[in-house]
């Protein structure tokens, strides 16, 4: 296939989720620092116990503040949960769309997109566990399925261009993009629980199936986009 045209990078990179930041400090914080601390604590608690199992009281206890402080910043558990989910979504969406923004061979783009999601699963497990749960909050800013739709839209644009150049029906790009993104996402959920094989091997096998098809699978697939 021909190289993909360059797509612009998102202008602002979301801050990475805090996976294992320092424990709560017994020092006076600014309002912004306190807000970040509460988000870190809530994120860890939601990943550990789920939305229903977490409480404002426990968030406050772990942050070493009173419950009114949590209400002052977020209005309650629903408010802080919505912010946590939104930040995770924006971070992951930026990582994957950035991987698709560089001009490269379609197979390389596929490797990068799969690698971005698997990197998030491996290094930001709390966030991924929060997102894959069904949101119990109607006003939450997003869900994992809506995130996948956003990513699929990015992939659809790339596939549509390639289909047109190759003489395929461009309308089918939407179908193929949903299939590709769904396969990688659900594999990521399985891999989070199983924990093996290595991330690079998982990505290589995903690309092997997508790129070569069942009838032409490589016995020992390897990633081609490997930093030197």
Automatic annotation (TrEMBL):
Residues 1-12 have a biased composition (Basic residues). Residues 1-25 are annotated as: Disordered. Residues 55-74 bind DNA. GO terms for molecular function: DNA-binding transcription factor activity; transcription cis-regulatory region binding. GO terms for biological process: negative regulation of DNA-templated transcription. InterPro entries: DesT_TetR_C (IPR054129), DNA-bd_HTH_TetR-type_CS (IPR023772), Homeodomain-like_sf (IPR009057), HTH-type_TetR-like_transc_reg (IPR050109), HTH_TetR (IPR001647), Tet_transcr_reg_TetR-rel_C_sf (IPR036271). Residues 32-92 form the HTH tetR-type domain. Keywords: DNA-binding, Transcription, Transcription regulation. PANTHER family: HTH-TYPE TRANSCRIPTIONAL REGULATOR RUTR, TRANSCRIPTIONAL REGULATORY PROTEIN (PROBABLY TETR-FAMILY)-RELATED. This is TetR family transcriptional regulator. It comes from Labedaea rhizosphaerae.
């Amino acid at each position: 296939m021909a190289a993909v045209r360059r797509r612009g990078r998102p202008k602002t990179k979301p801050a990475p989720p805090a996976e294992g930041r320092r424990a709560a400090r017994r020092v006076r914080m600014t309002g912004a620092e306190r807000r970040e601390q509460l988000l870190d604590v809530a994120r860890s608690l939601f990943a550990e116990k789920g939305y229903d199992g977490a409480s404002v009281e426990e968030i406050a206890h772990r942050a070493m503040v009173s419950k009114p402080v949590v209400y002052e910043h977020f209005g309650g558990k629903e408010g802080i949960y919505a912010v946590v989910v939104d930040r995770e979504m924006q971070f992951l969406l930026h990582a994957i769309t950035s991987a698709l923004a560089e001009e490269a061979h379609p197979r390389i783009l596929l490797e990068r997109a799969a690698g971005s999601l698997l990197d998030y699963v491996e290094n930001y497990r709390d966030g991924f566990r929060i997102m894959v749960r069904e949101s119990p909050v109607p006003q939450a800013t997003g869900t994992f399925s809506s995130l996948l739709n956003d990513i699929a839209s990015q992939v659809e644009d790339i596939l549509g261009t390639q289909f047109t150049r190759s003489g395929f029906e461009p309308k089918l790009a939407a179908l193929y993009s949903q299939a590709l993104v769904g396969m990688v996402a659900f594999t990521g959920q399985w891999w989070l629980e199983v924990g093996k094989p290595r991330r690079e091997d998982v990505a290589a096998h995903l690309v092997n199936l997508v790129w070569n098809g069942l009838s032409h699978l490589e016995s020992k697939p390897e990633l081609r986009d490997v930093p030197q």
